[in-house]
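The instructor's notes for this session suggest beginning with a concrete chain rather than abstract definitions. Hand out the sequence below and ask the class to guess, before any prediction is shown, which regions might be ordered.
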Amino acid sequence: MKSKYLKVLSLSVLMGVSLMGCQAKTKVEVQEDTVVENQTNTQSLLYQYNEDGVNHLKAYYPTLEGLEFALKNIGNELGDLTLTKLDGTTFDFSELKNQKIMIEINQDGCSYCKANEPVTAKVLSERDDVIHVPVFLNSTVEGIKEFYKELNLEMPKYVLIDNDKKLVDVFHATSTPTTIFVDENNKISYVAEEVFDETSFNDALKIAFENEKIYEMK
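After discussion, reveal the predicted structure:
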């Protein structure tokens, strides 16, 4: 039965539409043999999921790129990761272990990030159970401060800089904004490469933190 669903899914993702969200500013050139290898790995990872899991992944990630990104991340533990605060001190993500976290990968000059930030800030201001952690690539402290000033937003408690692009490697991120949801089990429960509106962001929070976890559908 699972084989039938995988065939349908394979067909749909290979016919997929363009990548959601903004165009990648950290995009890396990939060779044709790497693309073939990625597709093979994607199929292999899909075989781990049951029918419900395949249906959920098909609904949430209708493009091949999105599906590959999801399968590389969902179910992984956050692991040991340290980045830099705006004051230059080191921040260790273990401080937030077993809490609900939304990691938002931004750039201070990214117009899509500027469109996304007021939405996530507004929705999360009405919740006290999700910790908002914006992480900025290719950015300066001054640029990040200007980012929030321009948007007339208060800076979240945790704002980090990642000019070494550690998160690009850890999460296989290819565009900004990219959002990583980490649940109370310290596992990545949902990922998104898109600019949210309030409805889609609330939906993402439900998928990540309130519904049955995708990574359990195996």
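Then share the key points. Residues 1-21, 23-37 have pLDDT under 50 and may be disordered. The chain has eight helices and seven strands.
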